[in-house]
Design a protein that fits this description.
With about 350 residues, the protein is of the alpha/beta class. It has 2 domains: about 5-70 and about 75-125, Leucine Dehydrogenase, chain A, domain 1 (Rossmann fold, 3-Layer(aba) Sandwich); about 145-285 and about 310-345, Rossmann fold. Helix content is about 45%, strand content about 15%. It is built from 13 helices and 12 strands. The strands form 2 sheets. Strands 1, 2, 3, 4, 5 and 6 form a 6-stranded mixed beta sheet that branches. Helix 2 (about 50-70) links the parallel strand 4 and strand 5 (about 75-85). The radius of gyration is 20 Å and the shape is globular. Bound molecules: nicotinamide-adenine-dinucleotide. Nicotinamide-adenine-dinucleotide binds near residues 142, 177 and 202.
């Protein structure tokens, strides 16, 4: 299937290409669905090798946002923006020009931060469009909310797998100690879990995890095969693949990373191996629940936390259904989100 065929197959409502020569802007904004509300998804800036590679990414990501937002129970659709540029080429003019593109869509697409864009860039966008969420002065950094949702999702996974959501004494391997991973590791440690960790950079954070959380450090390529109860991917996508599945000794996989499973076949293989999987776009929805509130209501942290804690129930119900039907957890999660998009929340 080529990328243009993908548009029809995924059912995108609108895919818009924009250029602005003076600002050196080339971008694509994909609106996958506005059935539940305006399409929300961050703006990714990346030095894509080709327009086709950028189109492939934005189509996949925008559809993923429709699923994530619907599964989180928000009256929001799914979209995404990609700017084809090197992060070293970021300028005010570039983000102002991108914001004009967002503005031209009249509120059908709401932008936010993503890979290589941050709250500073979002502030620049605000000069030209009101359609920006995840503002530093309103909902702020989404990562702590993502970590809270992941912690709840891990507890639900433990309840399903081991019969109790008490993590005390469980061994949990955390891959990646970044904004979400380190925060999650702190919560797991406070709940009595034993930690095995790895991180490919940042020695300082590794030393902190070892000294303050009593974590055991392993090399980045050893983490897949460690003896643990739960593996929590918090770094990269596609880490459940043909190489790693034979290595896993864990009973369950539950963490923050996006697009954890390489492809459908790997989802089936994981299920066959008897490893429980908490679907990524369900368990990592805390951040978008936080930012998304800006889109449809007055931001209220208590309300956000209530919605984020509900990730526990959503994860648990999906795991139960997967057990009942024998289908991979990711298939159940996608159907759950698609039904909400089709039939309403
Ligand atoms: P981050 O960049 O702050 O942290 C990622 C960490 O992983 C970094 O410390 C990096 O050094 C480490 N890392 C990279 N490659 C690694 C490897 N091969 N082995 C071990 N460690 C490695 O990112 P983040 O915001 O914490 O997000 C983590 C994951 O969660 C990403 O996949 C992201 O897409 C996903 N996610 C994040 C949020 C959020 O609110 N930040 C929301 C939803 C999903």
């Amino acid at each position: 299937m080529n990328t243009v065929e993908m548009i029809a197959q995924y059912g995108h409502e609108e895919v818009a290409f924009f250029t602005n020569e003076a600002a050196k802007l080339k971008c694509i904004i994909a609106i996958h669905s506005t059935k539940l509300g305006p399409a929300l998804g961050g703006c990714r800036l990346y030095p894509y090798k080709s327009m086709d590679a950028a189109l492939f990414d934005v189509l996949r990501l925008s559809r993923g946002m429709s699923f994530k937002n619907a599964a989180a129970g928000m009256p929001i659709g799914g979209g995404k923006g990609v700017i084809i540029a090197d992060p070293s080429e970021k300028t005010d003019a570039l983000f102002e020009a991108y914001a004009e593109c967002v503005e031209s869509l009249g509120g059908r697409y709401l932008t936010a931060e993503d890979v290589n864009t941050d709250t500073h860039d979002a502030d620049i966008m605000l000069r030209k469009t009101q359609y920006v969420v995840g503002r530093a002065d309103v909902s702020g950094d989404p990562s702590p909310f993502t970590a809270i949702g992941c912690f709840d999702g891990i507890r639900a996974t433990a309840k399903f797998t081991f019969g109790t959501d008490d993590l005390n004494g469980l061994t949990i391997a955390v891959q990646g100690l970044g904004k979400v991973g380190y925060d999650l590791a702190c919560q797991l440690h406070a709940a009595g879990a034993k930690l095995i960790v790895c991180n490919n950079k940042n020695r300082e954070i590794m030393a902190k995890a070892v000294n303050e959380l009593g974590a055991t450090e392993v090399a980045a390529d050893e983490i897949y095969g460690v003896d643990c109860d739960i593996f929590a991917p918090c770094a990269l996508g596609a880490i459940v693949n043909y190489d790693t599945i034979p290595q896993f000794k864990c009973k369950a996989i539950a963490g923050a990373a996006n697009n954890v499973i390489l492809d459908d076949e790997c989802g089936v293989a994981l299920k066959k191996k008897g490893i429980v999987y908490a679907p990524d776009f369900i368990i990592n929805g805390g951040g978008v629940i936080n930012a998304g509130q800006e889109a449809f209501t007055t931001y209220d942290k208590e309300n956000v936390l209530k919605q984020v804690h509900n990730i526990y129930n959503t994860v648990y119900n999906i795991l139960e259904e997967s057990k009942a039907t024998g289908e991979p957890e990711g298939v159940i999660a996608q159907r759950f989100a698609e039904n909400r998009i089709k039939n309403g929340l």
